[in-house]
Structures are given as structure tokens and as C-alpha cells.
């Protein structure tokens, strides 16, 4: 929402001088102002030396000035920081302007003032620290945001710190600099901490979770950055930093993944078995290649062309608006998310939990090349429309995509359609369902000893087969790719996380099911 107060810079005693024009008017919504600084015209600069001295003629005529930094929209959902400097004849008037703008900014309560930042120095192209120092930290300083920065030293460092040690009361939000794996660490750390503090057991699939009050900001510095891309519309660190500064928020769906009633993980983007599980398992051994490891392993996995037998059971979401084949796309303020989210508000018991719910479970047995559950579009630079282009960020559903065994040629056609305007679901061997819950059981039971071996990274016969494309037999199991982390269990139960209690604010109203808010609405703000 735009703040009603607008700074109209066509005040008669002011003259805009930043681009050599005189007397032009300039409207900036207060909600998009990042900072305001008084300028000492005589010395050219008052604050940080960024502002160039004005030409002698104009400084003589207008000895007082202030600079406003604000958000400017650039191409393809990118945001940039722009400055405009205003000159004035009277010092008191200049100060009045600066003070008024500052007061307006202080009144914006959704803006963070203190942030806890975790940087993964090994994510993506290993540029996390550089990206943060060069592109993000200066913007936080400009916006007077104080930060506590932790560069992680090992995997799960951020998750464990958030879960046990971090003094969360001191912060208005947490920020991760990395990819989807780092975001996942944040979600797990924050959700566990919140449940533990409130005495809620995460293990029970029926348990309602207490929502987290802190928002998570993502500075993209990973390999896929799908969560950032799908929420903001682009994976650009400066754009994300600006969304964080202005206090934007977007609720998002969270799925919980269980195995035999034991909680395994949460997922917010992709849960993929078969193709995406195999790509991930192969690519983990090639981290040194950076983001290109996914293309290499993707090509290799495409050639192996393994299918997996099993049974998928799911509970279709029949009480909602929207389908996975819609042409509309989910954006900030999405009507469908608002409507469907209200089905879960305090006054409404979710219909599918009622005994008379007419949807019922559906069961599909078969041989699958891929089983994907996309809780959001999963748009990313490789596929700007994503795995399920019409999926919603916070509607309380996930899109279950089943790709049955087909020829290599047809599977390639299906994959290629993720990168073009053609519909990847419009193929006889592909089906898509919008679901509340689903379950997968592989045809052959996985023994506990087999699971132990997989968890400990030792190879089984089936995995040895997987590594030899020439071998024609398909292994019995794949693994699940859960937001880029491998789950060794083939049999899983998945459900949208339900949130207990009051709707916190209008952002959470979008989805009372959602436990996590990110700092990033999609593209244009409403
Ligand atoms: C022929 C080209 C086909 C392109 C098909 C592209 C479909 C891409 C959809 C990607 C969905 C990604 C969902 C996001 C998952 C992430 O959470 C997760 C973790 O991200 P992080 O590393 O930042 O922490 N990322 C991933 O699991 C990576 C999945 C990437 C899959 C890339 C697949 C490339 C396939 C290339 C096939 C090539 C066949 C060529 C035949 C001639
Ligand atoms: N300091 C660290 N050293 C090694 N691994 C780390 C570190 N910090 C985080 N990780 C782990 O790195 C993995 C990948 O992180 P991510 O930021 O998603 O990058 P990418 O997108 O390249 O996969 C995650 O599993 C995360 O837990
Ligand atoms: Ca969703």
C-alpha cells in the first residue's frame, strides 16, 4: 500500500537540480523513500561524500539543499536506488522538509530497524560475502538499519544458531544471503524455535503450528534462487535489499514432510522425486562446478532416463478458487490467495478435515519419470515461468505434477516447454493436481538398513546402477529433492502446514496456513 502522504516537490521555493532541469516536479511515495539527508551545499556534501558539489551559480542562488534516496523501478522487476536533490533559499524551510520526511519514515512501522544476517560463503558462485558487502550493506546503512552479520562456518550453522542461540527479540527480521538451501535453514531454524518456545510438537502431522513473527529476507546468492525469483520476479540482490528496507511482506505456503509419522523437513518450493531427486543427488558431488552442476547433472540424468514405480495418493483441493492450468499468475495481493486463505481463518475449520468432506483421497499407481510438488511456481532463471506457472504463493495448496514413463524424446519435449510459452502439462503422459496432502509409496519397500545405508552415503546396488547410464535397469528408488536438500526416504507423507491461532496481520490474512513470511512481494506492489 502506498502511504497517503506524498512529497510533492513542486514547492515554489524549491528547484530540482539533480539532472540539470529546473522547476520540474517529482512525486515520490513516502513508502518508497529510503533515506533523506541534509546537504551542506558549501562543502558539497554533508554525509558520506556521495553527493557532488553543485555548480557555483546554483549554490549561490540556493544555498540549502537535501537529498532524497528512493526506489526506482527498472527493467524486469528490478528495483534501483535513485537520488534526487532539492535546493532552497531558506535554511529553516529546508530543515522543515527533512524533519517532516523523517517523521513520515519513522511512522512506517513495517520497516525493519535491526536485522540478523546470515551469509553462506559457499553458496552459488561463492560470492555471498562480496555481494553482501558491496551491494547490500551500503543500502542498509543508507536506510539506517543496524545489522548483526554472521558468516556461516558449516552447513546448518544458521539453522542451529536460530533454533537455539539467537536473541531474536533484538531483531525485526532475519536475512539469508545464499540460495534455497540457506532459506530452508532459516525456515527450519525459525519454525522449530517458535514451536519449541510455544510447546508445540512438530512431529505430529495434525499439529497446528504457531506462526513465526519474524520475517525472512532473501538476498539471492545461490545456484537456483527459485524462492527469491518466484516471490520477487527476479534474482537480484539490490532489488531484494530494497524490498527488505521498505518492509514488504508476502506470506507463503509451507509443506511438512513426514515418514512414518516422523517429521523430516519443511518444503516451500519443490519436492521432487525421480528426475529432480536424481539431478540433485548427482549434482551434490559436483558442487565445485557451481550452478552449472545442475545443467551437467540434468543432462546426465536425462540420458539415464530412469523411471520409478510406486503409488501416489492425494487429497485434491476441491474447495478453492483456481486450477493449475489457469493463465493468471500469483502476485502480491493475489485475490485467490486471499480467498483461499480465508478458508483457514479462525472461524473456518478447513473443509477437508471434516468427515463429510466430499473430495476424498485419489490413488494413482504407475511408473513415473518424475513426481513433483510445487508449492509455488518455482520460477527461476532456467525456467522463468517455473514448474507450475499458475501455482500460488499462499493459497494453502501445492501442485502435484506426475510425469509418467514416456520416451526420451517426449520427456525432452516436456522439459523444453518449461522454457517456452507452450504448456508443459498439455501432454498425455503428464497430469497435474492441486492438492492439500499427498503420499508416495514406492512399489518395493525400503528396509531400515537400506535407509541407514543411504543416509550414511554408502552406495547400494540400485545406486551403482543409477551411476551407469549404459545399464538399462531402473533402480527401485530415487530420493526426494526437498528445496534442494536430499531426503533419503522414498516413502513420504506431505501436507500443508496449518497455523494455529490468530491471524497476525493483513499479510498473514492471505494464508492463515502459512508459517513464514518473506520480505518479498512479487514485482509490482499493489
Ligand atoms: C532442455 C532444457 C530443459 C530445462 C528445464 C528446466 C526446468 C527447470 C525447473 C527448475 C525448477 C527448480 C526448482 C527449484 C529447486 C531449488 O529449490 C533447488 C535448490 O536450489 P539452490 O541450489 O539455489 O539451493 N534447485 C534444484 O533442485 C535444481 C534443479 C535444477 C534442475 C535443472 C535441470 C536442468 C535440466 C537439463 C536437461 C537437459 C536435457 C538436454 C538434452 C539435450
Ligand atoms: N559455511 C558453510 N559451509 C558449507 N556449507 C554450508 C555453509 N553454510 C551453509 N551451507 C550449506 O550449503 C548448502 C547450499 O547452500 P545454498 O545457499 O542453497 O547454495 P546453493 O544454491 O549453491 O545450493 C546448504 O545445504 C547449506 O546448508
Ligand atoms: Ca501454494
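^ C-alpha cells above, recovered residues below v
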Amino acid at each position: 500500500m502506498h502511504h497517503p502522504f506524498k512529497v510533492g516537490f513542486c514547492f515554489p521555493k524549491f528547484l530540482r537540480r539533480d539532472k540539470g532541469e529546473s522547476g520540474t516536479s517529482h512525486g515520490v511515495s513516502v513508502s518508497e523513500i529510503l533515506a533523506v539527508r541534509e546537504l551542506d551545499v558549501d562543502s558539497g556534501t554533508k554525509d558520506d561524500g556521495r553527493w557532488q558539489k553543485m555548480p557555483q551559480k546554483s549554490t549561490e542562488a540556493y544555498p540549502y539543499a537535501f537529498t532524497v534516496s528512493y526506489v526506482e523501478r527498472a527493467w524486469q522487476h528490478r528495483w534501483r536506488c535513485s537520488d534526487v536533490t532539492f535546493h532552497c533559499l531558506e535554511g529553516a524551510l529546508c530543515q522543515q522538509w527533512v524533519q517532516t520526511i523523517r517523521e513520515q519514515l519513522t511512522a512506517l512501522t513495517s520497516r525493519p530497524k535491526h536485522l540478523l544476517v546470515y551469509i553462506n560463503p559457499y553458496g552459488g558462485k561463492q560470492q555471498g560475502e562480496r555481494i553482501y558487502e558491496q551491494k547490500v550493506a551500503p543500502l542498509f546503512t543508507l536506510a539506517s538499519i543496524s545489522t548483526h552479520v554472521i558468516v556461516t562456518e558449516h552447513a546448518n550453522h544458521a539453522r542451529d544458531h536460530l533454533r537455539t542461540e539467537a536473541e531474536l527479540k533484538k531483531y525485526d527480521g532475519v536475512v539469508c544471503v545464499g540460495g534455497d538451501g540457506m532459506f530452508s535453514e532459516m525456515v527450519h531454524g525459525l519454525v522449530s524455535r517458535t514451536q519449541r518456545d510455544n510447546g508445540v510438537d512438530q512431529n505430529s502431522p495434525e499439529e497446528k503450528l504457531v506462526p513465526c513473527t519474524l520475517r525472512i529476507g532473501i538476498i539471492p546468492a545461490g545456484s537456483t534462487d527459485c524462492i527469491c525469483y518466484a516471490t520477487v520476479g527476479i534474482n537480484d540482490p539490490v532489488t531484494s535489499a530494497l524490498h527488505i528496507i521498505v518492509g514488504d511482506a508476502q506470506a507463503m505456503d509451507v509443506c511438512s514432510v513426514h515418514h512414518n509419522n516422523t517429521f523430516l523437513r519443511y518444503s516451500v518450493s519443490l519436492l521432487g522425486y525421480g528426475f529432480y531427486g536424481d539431478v540433485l543427488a548427482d549434482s551434490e558431488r559436483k558442487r565445485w562446478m557451481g550452478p552449472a552442476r545442475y545443467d551437467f547433472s540434468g543432462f546426465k540424468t536425462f540420458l539415464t532416463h530412469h523411471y520409478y514405480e510406486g503409488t501416489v495418493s492425494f487429497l485434491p483441493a476441491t474447495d478453492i478458487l483456481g486450477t493449475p492450468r489457469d493463465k493468471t499468475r500469483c502476485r502480491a495481493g493475489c485475490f485467490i490467495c486471499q480467498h483461499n486463505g480465508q478458508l483457514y481463518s479462525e472461524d473456518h475449520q478447513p473443509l477437508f478435515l471434516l468427515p463429510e468432506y466430499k473430495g476424498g483421497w485419489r490413488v494413482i499407481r504407475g511408473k513415473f519419470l518424475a513426481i513433483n510438488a510445487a508449492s509455488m511456481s518455482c520460477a527461476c532463471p532456467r525456467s522463468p515461468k517455473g514448474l507450475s506457472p499458475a501455482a500460488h504463493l499462499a493459497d494453502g495448496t501445492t501442485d502435484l505434477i506426475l510425469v509418467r514413463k514416456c520416451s526420451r524424446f517426449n520427456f525432452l519435449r516436456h522439459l523444453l516447454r518449461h522454457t517456452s510459452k507452450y504448456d508443459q502439462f498439455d501432454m498425455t503422459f503428464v497430469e497435474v493436481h492441486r492438492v492439500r496432502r499427498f503420499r508416495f509409496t514406492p512399489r518395493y519397500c525400503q528396509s531400515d538398513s537400506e535407509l541407514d545405508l543411504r543416509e550414511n552415503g554408502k552406495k547400494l546396488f540400485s545406486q551403482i546402477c543409477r551411476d551407469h547410464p549404459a545399464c538399462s535397469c531402473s533402480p527401485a528408488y530415487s530420493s526426494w529433492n526437498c528445496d534442494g536438500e536430499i531426503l533419503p526416504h522414498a516413502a513420504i507423507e506431505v501436507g500443508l502446514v496449518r497455523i494455529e491461532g490468530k491471524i497476525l496481520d493483513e499479510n498473514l490474512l492471505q494464508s492463515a496456513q502459512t508459517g513464514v513470511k518473506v520480505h518479498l512481494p512479487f514485482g509490482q506492489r499493489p
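The longest helix spans residues 180-197.
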